[in-house]
Amino acid sequence: MLANNDKAPSIESRDELVAEIAKGEKPKADWRIGSEHEKVPFYRDTLRPVPYEGDAGISALLQGLAARFGWQPVYDLEKVIALEAPANCSGGSITLEPGGQFELSGAPLRTLFETCEEVGRHLDQVQEIADPLGISFLALGFSPLWTIAETPRMPKSRYKIMTDYMPKVGRYGLDMMYRTATVQVNLDFASEADMVKKMRVSLALQPIATALFANSPFTEGKPNGYLSFRSAVWLDTDNARAGMLPFAFEDGMGYERYVDYALDVPMYFVRRDHKYVDATGQSFRAFLEGKLPQLPGEKPTIEDWADHLTTIFPEVRLKRFLEMRGADSGPWHATLCVLPALWVGLLYDQSALDAAWDLVKDWTDEERQQLRDDVPRLGLATPFRRGTVRDLASATVAIAEAGLASRAREHGFKDESSFLKPLHDILESGLTQADVLLRRYHLEWGGDVRPVFTENAY
């Protein structure tokens, strides 16, 4: 059931919020890798989206996974809207995005081999239940055929609040909710200084990851003019809670500065008595002062703060760990195991992190934003100084590869750098997954997007 925060202790000061984030600090030996990926379900025979209800709907898929593999259902108003890992697993969950995008939030694991095995096991389980229902999953960053009106809506109470609010604050909020799919990796930090350096490096290089993993060139059956339309959507979704966080590069950046930012990001909701209370547009700072109009005199709990942090969507998000948020979803071999490898290589070896910082430390706010603005359309061909993003991506991947090799030597792991091979192939050809799909659309598929449901599907 949804949490009931009524009897939890109240937060009395901003310092408690800072301390909550600081609890994420871990010694290097305890750093883990948490991967997340979304995929878009569809019916193989009709290429139509999968609704929640019905004998072959999302609900049936969730219930089948629970019955066959022991996943534990999570309910919202008596509807199964998520699954928690079975007792014999190391953790993780399966959740639903607003349009039915099926997401694995993986357990925190030690190596990339374990992470990739987890993804493979999840896909095997899902396919075992989905195949008899006639369901497959798109490995793309944006739904390529259906309109928003044709896209199903999942029965999660928070999504109703967001659906009503999004059109008020941006052009593409509903597209983000209902038609995008991403792959992310969550990584640890040792200290406040370590967090700051990792956040700065990952913010600066997030457009490079966007370019390398670009995989959303179609909308409603036609090319949309972008290589990563998923990324472009975020440029006009809700800029009060998204973006490149230029303040992260200012003197004095740390936990307190991020907390101050989060306190002023407009709220979506508060959970009380297993229900969502609409708090759109209100500030958490006012809530902390007992001045939230919906709950007069009441102060938030740590669970309220944790909920609020999940509604903030910058390119890199800070909670008790750092979330890399810049990549389109894609195929298992080319994306789901590769994106975590890129960031682990860059951030989990000190020499690699130092080299990555040397690469980006003199970039200006304007240059970082220009990369963010241009990469969704131009990808690896995006100009930067006297070269292109392809040049930056080559340097970035080389640093990550060296970082993975060094990590293997330090910890006695099997060398994980082989996971980066798909990126070397992209850099050698200059063609991302989106570029390849567009070529096939024009040269092989005769201007018909429907073959992508076979070529880029699980």
UniProtKB/TrEMBL annotation:
What keywords appear on the UniProt entry? ATP-binding, Disulfide bond, Glutathione biosynthesis, Ligase, Nucleotide-binding, Transit peptide
Q: Name one GO biological process term.
A: glutathione biosynthetic process
Per its record, the protein catalyses: L-cysteine + L-glutamate + ATP = gamma-L-glutamyl-L-cysteine + ADP + phosphate + H(+)
**What pairs make up the disulfide bonds?**
116-337
Under the heading Pfam families, the entry gives: GCS2
Query: What is the enzyme's main class?
Result: ligase
Its quaternary organisation is: Homodimer or monomer when oxidized or reduced, respectively.
Q: What does the UniProt function comment say about this protein?
A: Catalyzes the synthesis of gamma-glutamylcysteine (gamma-GC).
Q: What is this protein called?
A: Glutamate--cysteine ligase
Its source organism is: Rhodomicrobium udaipurense
